Structure formats: structure tokens, C-alpha cells
Amino acid sequence: MGDNGYQMEYGLCPSWALSLGYLGVASGAVLSNWGSAWGTWKSGVSLLNTGIRHPSSVMKNVIPVVMAGVIGIYGLIVAVILAGNIDKPTVGTNENVYSVYTGMAHLAAGLCCGLSGLAAGGCIGIIGDYGVRSVGYRTSNISVVFSTNDKGGGFDAEDDAAGGGGGENKLFVGMLIMLIFSEALALYGLIVALIVSQHSYPCGE
């Protein structure tokens, strides 16, 4: 029994192994785009609502939408790499040269990037939603929390005396830091996916 026959008999290179690889391609692209759409939706709605009262702050607060859109690019990169590494059956003999080991590696890479992008997109969307609204509320001094003074406002008079712009900038910087670390979650998944995607076991060797 040759090496190829041994591999086929013991299930190292079955025909369904190709489905694992393409499932990894689909999961990497779809889940990352899902996270990207989720983050864009959550932060975009708040951006438009805040832009009604403060149109000048739209370009400044568009950062969450941009960072959410980048997550879809991570999934696209992984999906293209995985699709290019899936070997087709040999012409003529119709023997499968794509092993289960390679398929599992590609599936793990796609899930790693996709699920990381999904989590990062949701995190960016929620942070962008509340962050953009908070910056808008702070700019207009809208009452959103209970105050310790008798003026009825949402922020203390001491904070208002310090200047609304300073408080707005502090909120914006805090939101930006949280967005950066949220985006890093998707980047971690991309790095691991690129490493795992290089693992392969060719059939017939």
C-alpha cells in the first residue's frame, strides 16, 4: 500500500477536508464583517444624533466608525490568504491532496480572526455609542446624571467653571484610548490567524 493509499484509508486526506478550509475562509470573512457592521451601526447612529446638535463635532467623532470598518479588512486579508492555500484535487486521478490537518489549521485561523473581529467590533460599537453621546452631552451641558449642587444640571458647577471644552477633551481622549485597545483585540486575532494559516500537511509526501 502506497503512502497515498495509507493516508486515504486512515482518514488523513478525505474528500471532505476541503470543506474545513472553505469554512475557515467563510468564517474569517463573515464574522469579521459582522463585527465591522455591528460597530459601524452602533457608533454611527450616535454620531448622527450628536451631529444634529453639534455638526462641527462630526468629523472629530467619526473615529469609532473608521476603526470599526478596519476590522472587515482583517477578515478580508485572512480569507484571501486561506483561499489561496487550499489545494485543488489533482487533475486526472482526482486524488485529494488537502489534508485534515491543513483544513483544521485553516478553520482555526478563520475562526480566530473572525471571532476576534466580532468581539472587537461589538466593543468598538458600544464604546463609540456611549462615548460620542457623552462628548455631545458634555459639550451642551445636558443633564444626564444627578448633580450634587442645586442648579439642576447634570454636571457640577466646579466642572463647568473649569470650562466645557476641557471636560469634552478629557472624555474624548478616554474614549480614544478605549477604542485603541478594543481594536487591538482584532489585531491579536489577525496575527495568530496568519501564523496558524502557515501550518500544513500535504498529502502524498
Key traits:
mainly alpha, 205 residues, 71% helix, 0% strand, 6 helices
What does this structure look like?
With 205 residues, the chain is an all-alpha fold. The chain is 71% helix and 0% strand. The protein contains 6 helices and no strands. It has helices spanning 3-9, 17-53, 63-84, 100-140, 157-161, 164-196. Helix 3 (63-84) packs antiparallel against helix 4. The longest helix has 41 residues, at 100-140. The chain is elongated and about 70 Å long. It starts with a helix and ends in a 9-residue tail after the last helix. The relative contact order is 0.19. Residues 152-164 have low confidence and may be disordered.
Topology readout:
Layout: H1 3-9, H2 17-53, H3 63-84, H4 100-140, H5 157-161, H6 164-196
Helix pairs in contact: 2-3, 2-4, 3-4, 3-6, 4-6
Major β-sheet, in short? Answer: none
Structural class: mainly alpha
Order of helices and strands: HHHHHH
Percentage of residues in helical conformation: over 70%
Number of helices: 6
- Specify Rg, calculated over alpha carbons: 25 Å
According to DSSP, the number of beta strands is 0
